[in-house]
TrEMBL record:
Pfam assignment, any one: F420_oxidored
Name of the molecule in the record: NADPH-dependent F420 reductase
SUPFAM superfamilies reported for this sequence: NAD(P)-binding Rossmann-fold domains (SSF51735)
Taxonomic superkingdom: Bacteria
UniProt domain Pyrroline-5-carboxylate reductase catalytic N-terminal: residue ranges: 2-89
Coiled coil: none
Length: 205
């Protein structure tokens, strides 16, 4: 697949690195592709956020919540492709979530980009797990949440490519719960000293 990634921080870099090694074509949408910190990124780098997105099979938003309006404006309101929302609507004081009046951050993005096929995914496990999903005790749970079943199945494949145990959650209204789960992960990881090398897993029988 041809995958456009907006943002190449912890999350964008982890996802793009693994997908590149799995054989996908990565196009980075960066504000400053000449920044030396991006010199080692595999694949194509574009300066204008949004340029060429329509030629990609999937676009991934991996920017801080504070940049969401700016990034969505760059993508453009006519964008109608599959848009993976890996962001978390963390408030500025870093003590909770701020969805700007919407039911979830993902639905806020859908308000900004009404034609986008929004899929909430990769927001509720750490970037460390995206880069390396290996655990001795089982597979890392990855929830993929969307209204659009075709878009969900495309992103399910990308999640499987990361080595995750992928479960599709039908209905973008459930993105809110994925964001709460992420806030719990952030609380445990950063505020309560668990670090970034832990994951939730789903048991079945
Ligand atoms: N870190 C995690 O473990 C984790 C896990 C799951 C989800 N998330 C979520 O994923 C998102 C990204 O997190 P991160 O840790 O990867 O952040 P990060 O390391 O701070 O990286 C953010 C990236 O976004 C770019 N960016 C910032 N403003 C932008 C704009 N207006 N337009 C385009 N690009 C812009 C930055 O580029 P510049 O170099 O130009 O600043 C940078 O490449 C956040 O919403 C976070 O809550 C994080």
């Amino acid at each position: 697949m041809r995958i456009a990634i907006v943002g190449a921080g912890n999350v964008g870099r982890a996802l793009g690195g693994v997908w590149h090694r799995a054989g996908h074509e990565i196009v980075w949408n960066l504000r400053n592709p000449d920044d030396p910190k991006y010199a080692d990124l595999p694949g194509e780098k574009r300066k204008t956020v949004g340029s060429g997105l329509t030629k990609s099979d999937v676009t991934v938003l991996a920017v801080p919540w504070s940049a969401i309006d700016d990034a969505c404006a760059g993508i453009g309101e006519n964008f109608g492709g599959i848009l993976v929302d890996a962001t978390n609507p963390i408030n500025e004081s870093f003590d909770g979530l701020d969805r700007r009046g919407a039911h979830s951050g993902a639905q806020y993005i859908k308000q900004l980009l009404p034609r986008a096929r929004v899929v909430k995914a990769f927001n509720h496990t750490t970037a460390s797990n995206m880069a390396n999903a290996d655990y001795p005790g089982g597979k890392v749970l990855s929830l993929v949440c969307a209204n659009d079943e075709v878009a969900a199945s495309v992103v399910r494949q990308l999640s499987d490519d990361l080595g995750f145990d992928t479960v599709v959650v039908r209905g973008l209204e459930h993105a809110r719960q994925l964001e709460e789960l992420a806030w719990l992960v952030i609380t445990l990881a950063i505020k309560q000293g668990h670090g970034t090398d832990f994951a939730f897993s789903l048991l079945r029988r």
